[in-house]
Amino acid sequence: MAAVGRLPGAAAALLLALLCLAGTSAATNVTYDHRALVIDGVRRVLVSGSIHYPRSTPDMWPGLMQKAKDGGLDMVETYVFWDAHEPVRGQYDFEGRNDLVRFVKAAADAGLYVHLRIGPYVCAEWNYGGFPLWLHFIPGIKFRTDNEPFKTEMQRFTEKVVATMKGAGLYASQGGPIILSQIENEYGNIDASYGAPGKSYIRWAAGMAVALDTGVPWVMCQQADAPAPLINTCNGFYCDQFTPSLPSSPKLWTENWSGWFLSFGGAVPYRPTEDLAFAVARFYQRGGTLQNYYMYHGGTNFGRSSGGPFISTSYDYDAPIDEYGLVRQPKWGHLRDVHKAIKMCEPALIATDPSYMSLGQNAEAHVYKTGSLCAAFLANIDNQSDKTVTFNGKAYKLPAWSVSILPDCTNVVLNTAQINSQVASTQMRNLGFSTQASDGSSVEAELASSTWSYAVEPVGITKENAMTKPGLMEQINTTADASDFLWYSTSIVVAAGEPYLNGSQSNLLVNSLGHVLQVFINGKFAGNV
Ligand SMILES: *[C@@H]1O[C@H](CO)[C@@H](O)[C@H](O)[C@H]1NC(C)=O
Ligand SMILES: *[C@@H]1O[C@H](CO)[C@@H](O)[C@H](O)[C@H]1NC(C)=O
Ligand SMILES: *[C@@H]1O[C@H](CO)[C@@H](O)[C@H](O)[C@H]1NC(C)=O
Ligand SMILES: *[C@@H]1O[C@H](CO)[C@@H](O)[C@H](O)[C@H]1NC(C)=O
Ligand SMILES: *[C@@H]1O[C@H](CO)[C@@H](O)[C@H](O)[C@H]1NC(C)=O
User: Does residue 326 form part of some domain?
Assistant: First the structure.
């Protein structure tokens, strides 16, 4: 202020005016029509990718956002993790890896939009689907249905998130990056089992969300009966055949599975780059205008945050950016090239609907043509044979299971099966840390001498916590989520002369939803599964 005071009057006024301008970003108007999201009056073709903030560290966020931007993304999609933000009822945590405001700002700093998927049930291979433990113990509560105690808590948390975002000015209507928001999550996959209360719950959730007045559209994914103005969106490996249930809704793909999650004991997931690129191109070919990679960066399930049977601590997902934040080639580079080719078609894609043209068996074209604009996608959907097709009197060679993109209806700028981006030869090196000790104590010594830390979780059958009860226990009620392990033990006495013990080939058959089985015969370990 002192410095301003020494300036001549006119200059001071100008400087103040500039300061004011920098302080208020312009609002962005986000709506939609049957083709696309409409941003400031213009339909947009958008590419999005999921990055979940608690699955990386805040110092990684700017780098991840920049790699997403450089990879041709327009938008980052994240769930909001209720249990992380409200571990104790009414006590909120928005710090460190839970600093959602900082994460959204990091996206904005890289020039990316944000799709905020509040849920607050999120699934996400996350502990208890994101529900905090205390929710389980609210008297009379029934999750995800027309139940007053549940709706009260869901609304309170949703309002808290929206207020936090509004407080930081992060909605597009306030000049921020959030252009889209989701309520509930894949409820349409299970709502039949809830009957009429499930239907009224969805109507309530939609109304509750819209009343929060964020100024940006809301979606429900996998919810065919999502009430207007909510948009029903698709999740899956392929969504090109998806049609929104309301004719006024655009075709949006909220989860394109870039790979799959890893479970302990399972194979390391791998989705070929060519197949992913094919599915992406097919989606835009057949009228889609927003596609999201689930995941673009999968990251790490820290602590006990992973949920579901045997989900590993790595949530790498075979994503275009690997668990460590490094680009995965050729996936990242080839998809960047695919995004560039699709963006070259954007003027035609937003101007009109596609018209379909057969190019022979298992080959088809979709053409976006109006006035002087023309873009075309030529697809060979035969997964075995290459083809040569004729389009507009010209011959085009299409490898099996591929799409060629022609932003001018004549020249192919990219075929999804032909990878031109550089193939990196990343080599992982062991930095000298070893756990190959034969006994427990030396492993501990090694861990203590490094910068690694570890947690001990009691595993096994202990006498101290043992109890006897006929039948199965309710897991959360019994463990209070302090452990993932709940061991049942039972014994049966097999009388001599039982026919099934005859011979050496006897098999023990156990029908079980449990994950691990240990068998002892006469006190001697006999095997496990
Ligand atoms: C926002 O955009 C829609 C559609 O383009 C338009 O009808 C509406 O008037 C706009 N609203 C504002 C506040 O500019
Ligand atoms: C979805 O992603 C998969 C793999 O990530 C890809 O093979 C597929 O082509 C994608 N589909 C669309 C329509 O984007
Ligand atoms: C290839 O296509 C055929 C015919 O549509 C289908 O039955 C088969 O499962 C496909 N194979 C693969 C590997 O996708
Ligand atoms: C589990 O339920 C029983 C009976 O409803 C209750 O007494 C007990 O406190 C519950 N356990 C926990 C960890 O809350
Ligand atoms: C056991 O198997 C033998 C022949 O394999 C048979 O003779 C005998 O009767 C069987 N015993 C019982 C109890 O089923």
Answer: yes
CA-proximal residue: ligand 2, atom 10 (nearest)? 279
The whole domain housing 160 covers 25-344
In a domain, 18, yes or no: no
* Dist CA 378 CA 7 (whole Å): 64
Q: What distance in angstroms lies between residue 273's CA and the mean position of ligand 2's atoms?
A: 9
Q: How far is the CA of 170 from the centre of ligand 1 (A)?
A: 19
- Are residues 253 and 374 both part of a single domain? no
Show Cβ contacts of residue 429 under 8 Å, excluding neighbours closer than 6 positions. none
Q: Is 446 a catalytic residue?
A: no
Q: Has 255 been annotated as catalytic?
A: yes
Task: Report the separation in Å between the CA atom of 510 and the middle of ligand 5, taken as the mean of its atom positions.
Answer: 24
Worst-scoring range by mean pLDDT, 14-18, 205-209, 219-223, 412-416? 14-18
Residues 242 and 175 in one domain: yes
Lowest mean pLDDT among 1-10, 63-72, 148-157, 336-345: 1-10
In a domain, 424, yes or no: no
Going across the sheet that includes 42-44, the strands are: 30-32, 37-39, 42-44
What the block records as the tokens of 69 is 């931007």
Q: Which of 77, 255, 323, 346 is catalytic?
A: 255
